[in-house]
């Protein structure tokens, strides 16, 4: 399978973990791109959440576009962690970026089944995701 280009363009200075790249935009939005061919496990999810929390003290609940367009495996513990109090403490809205309309349709079914405790939508392009995520968002805490 050919490598899939991320929907989100990586920013200079992004923090790299085993499973993802993260960076803070000047708007206060935290961007996350999951790497191709990684095993997303609970340890990776906890590391990502700790980095998101570290962008401010105390942590703010932030809009988070997360690009999952690259093929990867996700352990069920990651989905449980996504519904946890720790994730709720850092996540205001989650915009999941996928590569195709079919992936968006399948992903919507998963989101309905998962029922995250914060607004969550799937997108195939960065522009609409950014518009939705930043609607009503202010960086003054």
What structural keywords apply?
141 residues; alpha/beta; six-stranded mixed sheet; two-stranded parallel sheet; 5 helices; 33% helix
Structural notes for this entry:
The chain is of the alpha/beta class. The protein has five helices and eight strands. It has helices at 42-54, 76-82, 85-88, 101-114, 126-134; strands spanning 15-16, 20-24, 30-34, 39-40, 62-67, 73-74, 91-97, 120-123. The strands form two sheets. It has a six-stranded mixed β-sheet with strand order 1-2-3-5-7-8, with helices on both faces. Strands 4-6 form a two-stranded parallel ribbon. The mean pLDDT is 86.
Q: What strand order characterises the main sheet?
A: 1-2-3-5-7-8
* Total beta-strand segments: 8
The share of residues in helices is: 25-40%
Q: Which radius of gyration do the C-alpha atoms yield?
A: 14 Å
SSE layout:
Elements: E1 15-16, E2 20-24, E3 30-34, E4 39-40, H1 42-54, E5 62-67, E6 73-74, H2 76-82, H3 85-88, E7 91-97, H4 101-114, E8 120-123, H5 126-134
Parallel strand pairs: 3-5, 4-6, 5-7, 7-8
Antiparallel strand pairs: 1-2, 2-3
